[in-house]
Amino acid sequence: MTISHWPQSERPREKLLAKGPAALSDAELLAIFLRTGITGKTAVDIAREQLQRFGSLGKLFAASEATFCEGVGLGPAKYVQLQAVLEMSKRYLCENMQTTDAFSSPNEVKNYLRAHFKNMSHEVFCCIYLDTQNKIIQFEQLFRGTLDSASVYPREVAKQALTQGAKSVMLVHNHPSGHAQPSQADKSITLQIKNALALLDIAVLDHFIVGDPEIFSFAEHGML
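and the corresponding structure tokens:
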């Protein structure tokens, strides 16, 4: 039986319009993206199979083109469409973040960071530069590699903050392992950067460590 023969209230598209996207399961949302099934299988059947194959939506999204295209009912065109959807989602979240007071709306910042660092396999260090109203000037990746004094240079952070005309900054780095608790090196480099920027009258408002799914905030834990 095709989806068109299902009761209208059970069809993913109609269900989304009637109840909103939050009412749909992961398989139903993926089925809407897939649009059509194949002989003997509906789009929902294929979606369920692929979620079982990968284990979650996140792992499916992170799959390489070759791995993704091995799935029944998938292919290069669907892979390209998925990557476009993911990038649009990131840009949408970035726009939301840039139009709010980043310091008083930490959830907007965290939502963007989750999307930006999702499934990233290497560690990177970034800065969010803010103006006098805590509006975001720029989100910039500065360093790549293990976070320690040998790979993150406070003077470079200070130089870029001055270049951007920032009044304050938020520091961000990820833990690809998924654990968001700060290490001693994380605490040390945060203090070094804070002290360096203080000489320039630039405040460090927060340091986010992005895990999966947790995000640790130095400010929320009273560590700044």
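(Above: one complete record from the training split.) The chain has a mean pLDDT of 85.
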